[in-house]
């Protein structure tokens, strides 16, 4: 049956295709549970996935429930009912959601397709990497950058110049590439008219030149469209040349469809209104990053290593322009841009224009291994087996570790390690405070005040988190010194292991005793 459907689609060609029903197959192991106690075969999943790819259809995600078929035994269940649509179908019908409804006597749940044309709000500015290949791009940037007179602290000047440049680039983009689809359509029609005239009566020399110019312009616009699609896809495994294939376009649409938020379940109720969804997202992150009122114990009796004066001087030494340039040039230009929409591709391509402001901004701002930990754990377990000794291994799971860091405790730990006031002031300026905005289906929400946590993707975040986590490590060492916690001795002459830490992973290791458990609970 699958081959017949593929052949039918190939025969009729592209169009608004919608294939739905009970396919009696799944795409991944998580689509089936409790079926004869065996996971679906790789062959079945590969064949079904290949069928969907051959059809070049998008598998619409489900809302409401995870499975669509339930066995009478109440154990076996699968997602075997699906709705597959073509890219043309998606473009024609707008926002589409598929809801799994309640079943009655049937073992299948009915699927309901809802269609809505929701307005999620304006899309933020994003720097287009393809702009740097335009012969007039740097001239536009330099004229805008040099032409703005802004006074004040250099970080403010830099921000305002980027804001002004953003508006200028939007205007320039509309002139050079704006109304892309209509311009390409008009060029195709102009070329067609010249082709028809050439067939009937031939073209004069001016028309031949004009036809070539049309082709050059059309090629430029097609390359621009391809580059924009490729950048939006944020693909790490496709080359930019692949962006002209139907497989690429389908992959982009599949990713967009699966990442879209068409409904949210809040307090056991589903909401679909864009306004209510945005409000729910803002409320969640506002509560998530709200500071806790918990009074935390001090660790004044726990010793920590102290930084020397030389180490503090090295930390607060002035950055050179060469150091700043090295960091910029070695950064991946295609990573997610900041809130202003400018990425590292812009910084690299326009470095000679903006480096002066960046240098002043930085000047004013100045006014162990994971594999080792795994090997140690394996050695502990093997040693316990060889010696026939019981061993306690307790894994501490930090919930949303980076987001939960208390700024007051972070500053306390910085001072306990002997960081100087200048460095602590920098950390306060970079980490403590600030606002965030959440993209909901590509449109930013209002700003949310942050009161705790470390920023994901910040190169300093792992190191700052380790300083916070070292508070736990210090307490564990102190508990061992006071004989309140007994670690596990690896072999007779081996070291005593009480805990291992790497990033946000922590393992407590010790003798299997009730006293150790009580100590861990108290800590």
User: Which structural class fits the helix and strand makeup?
Assistant: alpha+beta
| Low-confidence parts | none
Q: Determine the fraction of residues in helical runs and give it as a percent range.
A: 40-55%
**Which sheet architecture does the biggest sheet show?**
3 strands, antiparallel
Q: What integer is the average pLDDT?
A: 83
Annotation, overall tally of beta strands: 20
Strand content: 5-15%
Strand numbers in spatial order across the main sheet:
1-7-3
The number of helical runs is 18
What radius of gyration results from the CA coordinates? 30 Å
The CA-CA distance between the termini, in Å, is 62 Å
Please explain how this structure is put together:
- This is Cysteine-rich receptor-like protein kinase.
- It comes from Trifolium medium.
- One of its GO terms (molecular function) is kinase activity.
- InterPro entries: DNA/RNA_pol_sf (IPR043502), Endo/exonu/phosph_ase_sf (IPR036691), Endo/exonuclease/phosphatase (IPR005135), RT_dom (IPR000477).
- Residues 367-511 form the Reverse transcriptase domain.
- By secondary structure, the chain is α+β, with helices and mostly antiparallel strands.
- Among the domains are: 2-116, 4-Layer Sandwich (Deoxyribonuclease I, Chain A); 129-259, no CATH class; 368-405 and 455-523, no CATH class.
- The protein is 48% helix and 13% strand.
- The protein contains 18 helices and 20 strands.
- The chain has helices at residues 2-12, 42-55, 87-93, 137-147, 154-176, 180-200, 205-233, 246-259, 274-288, 309-315, 321-330, 344-349, 351-366, 370-387, 407-416, 421-431, 461-481, 514-522; strands at residues 18-22, 32-33, 57-59, 62-63, 69-70, 77-78, 81-86, 95-100, 111-116, 264-266, 269-271, 391-397, 435-436, 439-440, 443-444, 448-449, 488-489, 496-497, 499-502, 505-511.
- The protein has a three-stranded antiparallel β-sheet with strand order 1-7-3. It has a three-stranded antiparallel β-sheet with strand order 2-6-5, with no helix packed on it. Strands 4-8-9 form a three-stranded mixed β-sheet, with no helix packed on it.
- Strand 17 (488-489) and strand 18 (496-497) form a beta hairpin.
- The longest helix has 29 residues, at 205-233.
- The termini are far apart.
- The mean pLDDT is 83.
């Amino acid at each position: 049956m699958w081959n017949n459907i593929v052949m039918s689609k190939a025969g009729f060609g592209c169009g608004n295709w919608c294939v739905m029903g009970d396919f009696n197959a799944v795409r991944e192991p998580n689509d089936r549970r409790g079926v004869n106690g065996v996971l679906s075969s790789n062959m079945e999943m590969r064949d079904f996935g290949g069928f969907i790819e051959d059809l070049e259809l998008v598998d619409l995600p489900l809302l409401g429930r995870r499975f669509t078929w339930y066995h009478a035994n109440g154990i076996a269940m699968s997602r075997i009912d699906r709705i597959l649509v073509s890219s043309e179908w998606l473009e024609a019908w707008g926002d589409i959601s598929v809801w799994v409804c309640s079943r009655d006597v049937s073992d299948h749940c009915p699927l309901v397709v809802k269609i809505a044309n929701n307005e999620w709000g304006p899309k933020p500015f994003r720097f287009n990497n393809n702009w740097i290949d335009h012969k007039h791009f740097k001239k536009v940037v330099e004229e805008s950058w040099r032409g703005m007179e802004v006074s004040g602290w250099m970080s403010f000047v830099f921000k305002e110049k980027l804001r002004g440049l953003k508006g200028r680039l939007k205007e320039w983009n509309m002139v050079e590439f704006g109304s892309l689809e209509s311009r390409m359509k008009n060029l195709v029609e102009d070329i067609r008219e010249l082709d028809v005239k050439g067939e009937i009566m031939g073209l004069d020399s001016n028309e031949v030149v004009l036809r070539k110019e049309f082709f050059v312009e059309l090629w430029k616009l097609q390359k621009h469209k391809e580059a924009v699609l490729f950048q939006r896809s944020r693909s790490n495994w496709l080359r930019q040349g692949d962006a002209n294939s139907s497989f690429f376009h389908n992959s982009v649409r599949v990713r967009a469809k699966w990442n879209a938020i068409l409904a949210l379940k809040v307090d056991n109720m589903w909401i679909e209104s864009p306004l209510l969804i945005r409000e729910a997202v803002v409320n969640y992150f506002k509560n998530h990053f709200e500071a806790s009122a918990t009074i935390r114990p001090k660790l004044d009796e726990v010793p920590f290593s102290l930084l020397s004066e030389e180490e503090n001087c090295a930390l607060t030494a002035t950055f050179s322009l060469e150091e700043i340039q090295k960091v910029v040039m070695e950064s991946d230009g295609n990573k997610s841009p900041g809130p202003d929409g400018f990425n590292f591709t812009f910084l690299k391509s326009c470095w000679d224009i903006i480096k002066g402001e960046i240098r002043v901004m930085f000047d004013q701002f100045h006014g162990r291994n994971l594999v080792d930990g795994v090997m140690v754990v394996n050695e502990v377990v093997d040693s316990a087996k060889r010696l026939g000794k019981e061993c306690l291994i307790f894994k501490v799971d930090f919930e949303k570790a980076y987001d939960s860091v208390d700024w007051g405790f972070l500053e306390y730990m910085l001072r306990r390690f002997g960081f100087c006031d200048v460095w602590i002031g920098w950390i306060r300026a970079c980490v403590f405070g600030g606002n965030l905005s959440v993209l909901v289906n590509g449109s930013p929400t209002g700003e949310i005040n942050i009161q705790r946590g470390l920023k994901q993707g910040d190169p300093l975040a792992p190191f700052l988190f380790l300083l916070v986590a070292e508070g736990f490590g210090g307490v564990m060492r102190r508990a061992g010194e006071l004989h309140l916690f007994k670690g596990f001795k690896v072999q007779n002459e081996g070291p005593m292991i009480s805990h291992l830490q790497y990033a946000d992973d922590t393992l407590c290791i010790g003798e299997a005793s009730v006293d150790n458990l009580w100590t861990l609970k108290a800590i």
